[in-house]
Amino acid sequence: MTTDHHHHPPEPAPIERRVAALEQLLTERGLVTPDLVDEVNRAYEEDIGPRNGAQVVARAWVDPEYKRRLLLDGTAAIAELGFGGAEGDHMQVVENTDAVHNVVVCTLCSCYPWPVLGLPPAWYKDPPYRARVVREPRVVLAEMGCRLDDDVEIAVWDSSAEQRYLVLPQRPAGTDDLTEEQLAELVTRDAMIGVARL
Amino acid sequence: MSGLDRIEVPRRNGELAFDEPWQARAFGLAAVLIRTRFDEDWEPFRTRLIAAIAADEARPYWESWTEALEDLLISTDLVSSDDLDALTPP
């Protein structure tokens, strides 16, 4: 029997014990309840995520007047569709064109527009992406499968407490017959961060 | 290059943001506390998260997150480090 270690879970790591201790203390003091924590996590798993941002993008594609408002005041136009809340203030939407491709990063930590994209993926928070996309965006994008022609300018937007960014990707060719709902299905999280094209 | 070759398309409403359950607990604790005790103002936490990441870039993200949360709770007297240490003997 060489595989019976499956039956003996390892001791919790120090960080797991630390988090469990925090939760225990906070619960004892009535500052949190485990149910509330579950509820927050469930919301981010099921309700708050990139499908919200995809609806914003699809609306902008089909409604020029909405797009105008979106580029003028991202927070207000996103709120029109019912999205807002934690980490959703100060939204700026940046539009990809034939000439400019936008990409978003947070160089200092992990600022990210939660109401429209949910929680950031692991690579967004890791040092390689945070450091390198500023220094050599074209190389990093190519490594992530997003190859841009040399004459396309790349604009890198560094998120902060004061400003969050959502990339408005270009509408793919040949989608004239699609409904707004069908268009939203085409929009990916990575395209709204700017590390992919559609 | 860790992570940059691992690109996933969103499923349902995005990929799971957590690799392990304790990370979800650490996130949820911060989110609940900042909503209920800090009037949804993430700034005091964010400044600590930036500091925790800068202090040790190699430390895994959610460990820096937990460090920032501890620091916020201790500095605002919601939790004492003695109580925390008592629950996590070496």
Architecture blueprint of SSEs:
The complex is a heterodimer of chains A (198) and B (90).
Chain A: H1 14-28, H2 34-46, H3 50-62, H4 64-72, H5 74-80, E1 91-95, E2 100-105, H6 114-117, H7 122-125, H8 127-135, H9 137-143, E3 153-158, E4 164-168, H10 180-186, H11 189-193
Parallel strand pairs in A: 1-4, 2-3
Helix pairs in contact in A: 3-4, 3-10, 4-5, 8-9
Chain B: H1 21-36, H2 43-55, H3 61-75, H4 81-87
Helix pairs in contact in B: 1-3, 2-3
Quick overview of this protein structure:
The complex is a heterodimer of chains A (198) and B (90). With 198 residues, chain A is mainly alpha-helical.
Structural class of chain A, by secondary structure, is mainly alpha
Order of helices and strands of chain B: HHHH
Helix fraction bin of chain A: 40-55%
What's the shape of chain B?
globular
CATH topology of the largest domain in chain A: Nitrile Hydratase, Chain A
Query: Which segments of chain B are poorly predicted (pLDDT under 50) over 5 or more consecutive residues?
Result: 1-13
Most extensive interface between two protein chains, with residue counts: A-B, 60 and 55 residues
Oligomer: heterodimer
Beta content of chain A comes to 5-15%
Tell me, rounded to a whole number, the average pLDDT of chain A. Answer: 93
Q: What would you say the CATH architecture of the largest domain in chain A is?
A: Alpha-Beta Complex
Estimated radius of gyration of chain A: 20 Å
Largest sheet of chain A: 2 strands, parallel
- Largest pleated sheet of chain B: none
- CATH structural class of the largest domain in chain A: Alpha Beta
**Average pLDDT level of chain B:** 84
Number of helices of chain A: 11
User: Termini separation of chain B (Å)?
Assistant: 34 Å
